[in-house]
Write a structure and sequence with these properties.
The chain is an all-alpha fold. The protein has a single domain, classed as Substrate Binding Domain Of Dnak, Chain:A, Domain 2 (Up-down Bundle). The protein contains 5 helices and no strands. The N and C termini lie far apart (about 60 Å).
Length: about 150
């Protein structure tokens, strides 16, 4: 490919992107009259989201300390990692109001309680663990409301 072909290709892509933007702006006046009742699981979605965010921060902190030789953080990292896996699925099923949500909420609640216990051991020394512990407690509480 020579320089001229490259420039023509880039110009074509730019033109296509501009046309797409123009269509999006032209269509922005389109009004939707769909009525959306709020998601009945919004509180669970919110607490799972917070749990995921706080858990990712905690896990990163644990891994950093583990890399420095602090083996005390191993249990915390493991429980946070497992909580993250279940809360990611929980958040998705809650958003879809899935029929599988009550069963998963039971498991996710257990994972959150385990993570809460593991983080509790470090909460007085590490703000990341304290925040994760608190988020897990809130998520576990929401999970209990709908679990089977």
């Amino acid at each position: 490919m020579n320089r001229r072909e490259l420039l023509l290709g880039v110009a074509s892509l730019a033109a296509a992107a501009t046309a797409g933007s123009a269509f999006a702006v032209a269509d922005s006046g389109h009004e939707h009259h769909h009525h959306h009742a709020g998601n009945p699981n919004q509180a669970l979605i919110d607490t799972a989201s917070d749990c995921i965010l706080r858990g990712q921060i905690c896990l990163s902190h644990c891994l950093e300390l583990l890399s420095q030789g602090d083996k005390e953080m191993g249990e915390c990292a493991r429980s946070v990692n497992q909580m993250l896996a279940t809360c990611n699925a929980l958040q998705q099923l809650a958003s879809q109001n899935s029929k599988y949500l009550p069963a998963l909420a039971k498991i996710a609640g257990e994972a959150c309680r385990d993570c809460e216990e593991a983080c509790k051991k470090h909460a007085d020394k590490h703000e990341e663990c304290k925040a994760c512990r608190d988020a897990c407690a809130a998520c576990a509480k929401e999970c209990r409301k709908i679990s089977v």
